[in-house]
Amino acid sequence: MLRPSFILVLCALAPACKESAPPPPATTAAPAAPPAPAAHTKWGVIEGRIQLSGTPPTPARQPTIGTVVSVCGEETEERSLVVGAEGGVAHAVVSLKDGKALPAPVRPAPEPVLDQKQCVYDPPVLAAKTGSTLVIRNSDPLVHNVRAASGTNRAFFNVAMPLEGMSVRRQLPAEPGEVPIHCDIHPWMRARVRTFDHGYFATSGADGRFRLEVPEGTHTVVVWHERLPEQLHTVTVRTGETVQVDARWATTDLK
Q1: CB within 8 A of 96, min separation 6: which ones?
Q2: Considering only CA atoms, which of 100, 113, 93 is closest in space to residue 202?
Q3: What are phi and psi of 74, to 5 degrees?
Q4: pLDDT at position 207, please?
Q5: How far apart are CA 197 and CA 12, in angstroms?
Q6: Dihedral angle sign, alpha carbons of residues 28, 136, 85, 212
Q7: Are 165 and 243 in contact (CB under 8 A)?
Q8: Whole-angstrom distance, CA of residue 185 vs CA of residue 18
Q9: What ranges does the record give for the region Disordered, renumbered to this chain (predicted)?
Q10: Nearest to 157 by CA among 167, 166, 145, 175
C-alpha cells in the first residue's frame, strides 16, 4: 500500500501526475444539436453479429513490472482483438453513416465508463457522443494515469489516479473521431474511444452481437474494428421490422 507521503512525492516529481491544462475554447460556434425524436417518426431495428472465421491468433502476453506483479500478475493479455465463442468479435463499433441527419434516437447514448482493472483498461474500446463526459475509474490499489489525445493535441487531458476506488469525469472532444488513451506509468495499458456527432452507434458484446433502434428508411451501417478492414452495409428498414446485418472477416484480414 502506498503511503500518502510517497504519493505526494511521486506526483510532485512525475509529469504524468499533473493534469494538463484544458484545451482553449473553440472560436467557432458550437454545432446545432440534432432534432428531437419527432412524434411521427417510425422505428425499426438493425441487429447482427460481428464474427471472425478461422482460428484467431493467440493474444500476445505483455510483461508487467515488479511493483505491480502482486496485483496484476507477471503478464497481461493484449486486448486489441477479443474473440469469443463461435468467432464472435467483441468491442467492434457499429454506427450509421447518416446518423447526424436523423432525428435523435429514442434512447440516449449510455454514459461511457472506462475502468482500470488489473493493469488493463476495461473495456479496451468505447463509443460515445462528441462532447459527452467520460467516467474514468481506478479499481486497482495502484497509481495509474490516464492520458487522452485528440487530433494533434497529445495531452487533451492527462489525469493521475493514485487511489483505489476513485473516479474522475472528463469531457470528450467536440469533434467526431478517435481518442487514443494510455497510461504513462504502465505503457502496455491502452484504450480507444470512438466519438460520433449523433447517437446511432453501439459496440459488439462478448458474443459479437449488437443492436440499433433506427428510424424507418435506408441506412448505411459502418462496422469498425482497429484490427480489421472497415465494412459498409446498406439496408432498408421498415416500421416494426428487424433487419439482420452480419459482418464477417477471415483471420487473413487481420492487420
Answers
A1: 102, 198, 200, 201, 212, 214, 219, 220, 221, 222
A2: 93
A3: -80, -20
A4: 97
A5: 38
A6: negative
A7: no
A8: 13
A9: 20-39
A10: 145
Rounded Cα gap, residues 26 and 69, in angstroms: 43
Which has the higher per-residue pLDDT, 16 or 90? 90
Q: What is the CA radius of gyration of the chain?
A: 20
The CA distances from residue 172 to 90, 146, 153, 176, in Å, are: 23, 13, 13, 10
How would you class 64 by CB atoms within 10 Å of its CB: exposed for 0-12, middle for 13-18, buried for 19 or more?
A: middle
Structural domains of the chain ordered from first start: 42-106+209-255 (2.60.40), 109-198 (2.60.40.420)
Question: What letter represents residue 1's amino acid?
Answer: M
What residue type is assigned to position 121 of the chain?
A: Y
Give which of 175, 177, 167, 173 is closest to 146, Cα–Cα.
167
- Does residue 10 surpass a pLDDT of 50? no
Per residue in 196-246, pLDDT (tens digit) is: 999 999 999 999 999 999 999 999 999 999 999 999 999 999 999 999 999
| 3-state per-residue secondary structure call for 23-85 | CCCCCCCCCCCCCCCCCCCCEEEEEEEEEEECCCCCCCEEECCHHHHHHHCCEEECCCCCECH
Containing H/E element for 249?
strand 247-250
Run of H or E including 128 = strand 125-129
Peptide bond into 173 cis (omega under 30): no
